[in-house]
């Protein structure tokens, strides 16, 4: 797949059959019902295709990297619904080489105002190349801990479960504190996470401490008070 190709066009739903199945006056039979709130689009397969293509380019570049974010959770077997983008952690000093390799494959590179990532776009999906996770620089040690996993048939380094949980918790703040998407990730990874290191690395973060306490109340983690 060329990285610049968009997803295939989808046929319009309904068509002529809609008018045949409507009310006698031509309005649909359900027209009197209140419309349901629109759900965010599920881009899972499109994001996976873009992830595989970008991962292949990064592997060919020879520079260390790791898949992070929701797609990393998916690679670890967590059934998350992918909606927004695909994220890769790279070293800051490799940013120029990596972006040039992607540009040569037709990926559009966008220079954002933030100084901790590079944004790109391919196949209709957003790509983030990140060199600072939750305010902490991406290091060679962090990337070296990433196991190689299949991502929808393409093998690539994926952020280790403990590091993934630390990054997700440190990203929480009073402005962004939605525990809902994080709960299934914590449940699914709980046997593979070093929770002692998570507590140590997130100490002093009120949101992280609140989430870890919630996991204790839900019996995802043992209670430290022994109750």
Automatic annotation (TrEMBL):
<dbReference type="Pfam" id="PF14907">
    <property type="entry name" value="NTP_transf_5"/>
</dbReference>
<feature type="compositionally biased region" description="Low complexity">
    <location>
        <begin position="1"/>
        <end position="36"/>
    </location>
</feature>
<dbReference type="InterPro" id="IPR043519">
    <property type="entry name" value="NT_sf"/>
</dbReference>
<protein>
    <submittedName>
        <fullName>Nucleotidyltransferase family protein</fullName>
    </submittedName>
</protein>
<feature type="region of interest" description="Disordered">
    <location>
        <begin position="1"/>
        <end position="43"/>
    </location>
</feature>
<dbReference type="InterPro" id="IPR039498">
    <property type="entry name" value="NTP_transf_5"/>
</dbReference>
């Amino acid at each position: 797949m060329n990285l610049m190709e968009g997803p295939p066009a989808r046929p319009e739903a309904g068509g002529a059959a809609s008018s045949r199945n409507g009310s006698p006056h031509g309005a649909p039979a359900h027209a009197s019902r209140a419309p349901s709130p629109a759900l965010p689009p599920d881009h899972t397969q499109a994001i996976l295709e873009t992830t595989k293509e970008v991962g292949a380019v990064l592997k060919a570049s020879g520079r260390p990297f790791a898949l992070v974010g929701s797609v990393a959770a998916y690679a670890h077997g967590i059934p998350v619904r992918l909606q927004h983008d695909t994220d890769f952690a790279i070293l800051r000093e490799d940013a120029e080489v990596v972006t040039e390799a992607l540009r040569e494959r037709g990926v559009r590179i966008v220079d954002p105002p933030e100084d901790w990532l590079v944004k790109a776009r391919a196949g209709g999906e957003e790509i983030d190349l990140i060199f600072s996770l939750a305010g902490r620089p991406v290091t060679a040690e962090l990337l070296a801990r990433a196991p190689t996993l299949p991502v929808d048939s393409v093998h690539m380094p994926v952020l280790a479960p403990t590091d993934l949980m630390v990054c997700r918790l440190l990203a929480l703040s009073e402005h962004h504190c939605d525990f809902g998407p994080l709960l299934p990730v914590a449940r699914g990874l709980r046997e593979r996470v070093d929770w002692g290191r998570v507590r140590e690395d997130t100490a002093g973060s009120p949101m992280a401490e609140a989430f870890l306490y919630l996991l204790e109340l839900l019996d995802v983690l043992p209670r430290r008070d022994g109750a």
